[in-house]
Design brief:
- By secondary structure, the chain is an alpha/beta fold.
- It folds into two domains: 2-9 and 16-190, Peroxisomal Thiolase, Chain A, domain 1 (3-Layer(aba) Sandwich); 204-366, Peroxisomal Thiolase, Chain A, domain 1, CATH 3.40.47.
- The chain contains eleven helices and twelve strands.
- It has helices at residues 2-7, 18-34, 57-68, 90-99, 114-127, 145-154, 192-197, 226-239, 257-271, 284-287, 294-308, and strands spanning 46-51, 105-106, 133-140, 183-190, 204-213, 248-250, 280-281, 310-311, 334-335, 340-347, 351-359, 365-366.
- Strands 2-1-3-4-12-5-11-10-6-7 form a ten-stranded mixed β-sheet, sandwiched between helices. The protein has a two-stranded antiparallel ribbon with strand order 8-9.
- Helix 2 (18-34) packs across helix 4, helix 5 packs across helix 11 (294-308) and helix 8 (226-239) crosses helix 9.
- The chain starts with a helix and ends with a strand.
- The relative contact order is 0.17.
Length: 367
């Protein structure tokens, strides 16, 4: 299947773009895992909501070098302009085209909060009765010179040191930034009634999501936790979940000094005295910062943690920061029953997102 997928992800002669390959692979695997039937009787009510923080930078850099650096560019005879692959909606369009989905086709773009916001938008389509099922998620492929150079100038990348795998250290006193990764995830969302009727494998119930903005700066988050804490509190109220019911927090946890302090302070303010008792983790030390793909991959990992009864670790957390004094599950995973989970995603420009999920089958579900 993978060979067909990689061969079919682009038009004849078109250069490879990992962003598209990631989206098609993730969507195809999601459909297979959910055993979702897509045919003439269902396709009109199935949507594609696949976000990305930016378009196809691999194709863009390839075309830019050919155009502006005078390098030889070969398109294999294709009439497709490689710059067209830079359009952010390309993954969503290609998923809809590959699976012949006729429902809404959307591409949320919200910096590093894109993934969680995309899934929240898909859940809205279900709740509003506009779709019976939605393929929702996000992808990002940014391991190119242009993007790496931009983040380096912003001063947010971790120094690699002797061992690059230990460079990103969320919540550690010696943290100095993140490492860029590539990846993505797509989830199948559908109503509980529909999922039950077809005997779907249900990972969790989507209880509520909240989005907000604190547009303080283009490339920095406001370290005042008020806005994020208010968002968390409001989302829990919508979900009708008490702070004492939360069993796990999946942090955005970039490993930058301001981000980790902000999330810690916001959780303390919104959850109160129970905050110290709730285990959580950041995955970015182990998988890198997937940028637009981060929220969806981290949410998918949270679902697997709920399924398997295990709290994933924050790797590379060797020396806790006194200002980051919550339980981040340092270095080693441990078993725990996770019934209710909270997920946070933050993005440059002030994008804030929060979601609450519960294990099992209650209402709207993730299959």
């Amino acid at each position: 299947m993978s060979g067909d997928l990689l061969d079919g992800n682009r038009l004849a002669g078109e250069i490879a773009e990992p962003l598209i390959e990631l989206a098609l692979r993730a969507a195809t695997e999601a459909v297979a895992d959910a055993r979702l039937i897509i045919d003439a009787s269902t396709r009109d009510r199935i949507g594609s909501v696949v976000g990305t923080s930016k378009g196809g930078w691999h194709a863009f850099q390839h075309a830019w070098e050919a155009t502006y650096r005078g390098r030889e560019f070969s398109s294999g005879g294709s009439k497709t302009d490689p710059f067209a692959l830079f359009l952010p909606d390309t993954p969503a369009r290609r998923v809809a085209a590959r699976l012949d989905l006729r429902g809404p086709c959307l591409c949320p773009v919200a910096a590093c909060a894109t993934g969680l916001i995309s899934i929240a938008r898909g859940a809205d389509l279900i709740a509003q009765g506009r779709c019976d099922a939605v393929l929702a998620g996000s992808v990002d492929a940014s391991l190119v010179e242009i993007v790496q150079g931009s983040f380096r100038r912003l001063g947010v990348l971790a120094r690699p040191g002797e061992d690059g795998s230990r460079a990103c250290r969320p919540f550690d006193r010696d943290r100095d930034g993140f490492v860029v990764g590539e990846g993505g995830a797509v989830l199948v969302l559908e109503s509980a009634d529909r999922a039950r009727a077809r005997g779907a494998k249900i990972y969790a119930t989507w209880l509520a999501a909240g989005v907000a903005s604190e547009a303080t700066h283009l490339a920095r988050l406001n370290e005042d936790p008020t806005d994020l804490a208010r968002l968390i509190t409001r989302t829990l109220q919508i979900a009708d979940v008490a702070t004492s019911e939360i069993d796990y927090v999946n942090y955005h946890g970039t490993g930058t000094r301001p981000n980790d302090r902000l999330e810690t302070a916001a959780i303390r303010r919104s959850l109160g005295p129970v905050a110290s008792q709730i285990p959580g983790s950041s995955l970015k030390g182990s998988i890198g910062h997937l940028l637009g793909g981060a929220g969806s991959v981290e949410l998918a990992t949270t679902l697997l943690a709920m399924r398997d009864g295990i709290v994933p670790p924050t790797v590379n957390l060797e020396h806790p920061d006194a200002e980051c004094d919550l339980d981040y599950t340092p270095r080693i995973a441990h078993p725990a029953r996770i019934e209710t989970a909270l997920k946070l995603s933050l993005g440059f420009g002030g994008h804030l997102a929060c979601a609450v999920l519960r294990r099992g089958d209650i209402s709207r579900v993730v299959t």
